[in-house]
Sequence to fold (377 residues):
Amino acid sequence: MAEAYIVGAVRTPVGTKKGALKDVHSADLGAHVLKELVNRTGVDPAAVEDVIMGCVMQVGAQTLDIARTAWLSAGLPENVPGVTIDRQCGSSQQSIHFAAQAVLSGTQDLVVAAGVENMAMVPMGASVAPNTGLPWGEGWAERYGKQEVSQFRGAQLMCEKWGFKRGDLEAFALESHRRAVKAIEAGYFDREIAPLAGLVKDEGARADTSLEKMAGLQALRDGWEITAAVASQISVGASALLIASEEAVKQHNLTPRARIHTLSVCGSDPVYMLTGPIPATEKALKRSGLSIDDIDVFEVNEAFAPVPLAWSRETGASLEKTNPNGGAIALGHPLGATGGVLMTKLVHELERTGGRYGLQTMCEGGGQANATIIERV
Fold:
């Protein structure tokens, strides 16, 4: 049976909206991690068969197939093509899936899976051009009515369904910052980060935050539990992984770091929008033959605090093993790059701790989710 291995995984530091990376062109962000991936793995870049890059807001600095633009901006061989994909927040996790599927199918042997997003330069929502209408037409209205559909309302609906109060969310957010600060200070991320523009560490984690400070923030709407403190940060970043077949590992003298064990993707209620990680995880575990207790580390994107809280409650996964070094509430969420960022963190954390299995999942716009199980080798 064919195997697909992660042989390299690298990311930029995740920058804040007003931080050190805000003026770095998105193509140059992507180019930075692509060049670093080639350098770290020692692979012949001309042997790469495709570059699959996730990016959500594909306008302005992120338009015209940024996967191709970033590869060429890195000075890498012209014979290598690139394609840009959008599965909303899960875009670069999906790029990993597509790369792995190409290798597992036997049609390709070396594929780069990457992601990029500069949310300071290309704001969230920029791809919805003014005066062109919403992306939902008559068929959507017939099915779901004219109710508000947004990630913010979805997060609030989750609070109401699972009974989460603001204090629950803030306690989770505070722990995310605490874990992130600890990991940064201990140097846990140093091996996986390719410094850029003088930035060597993630910018978003706050050592000085507190429950008292969070309690002083205004809710997004009257009567809601959701505040900015319990949501992921607007961020800037890029990530890249090299996926290789067993034959490519031998031919190019590469070192496997993790085996792609199981892939799953599913749809869920698009109004709740953020609940997909629950069925995606269940689907991945069923396909893998593993139990939730077999997993050593979970990376669950903290789009909003109720997402991992509800996911943990429904799947039975331990929150102690979930986002052990903090999540997007503390470290940021550069949309199209985040899937690759989380997988890079997962690979390195398994190596650091000696764990065997890791599971990554994240909620995605439209009510979707990917789940990926890897095995350290």
Remarks:
- The chain has a mean pLDDT of 97.
- Residues 101 and 107 are 9 Å apart (CA to CA).
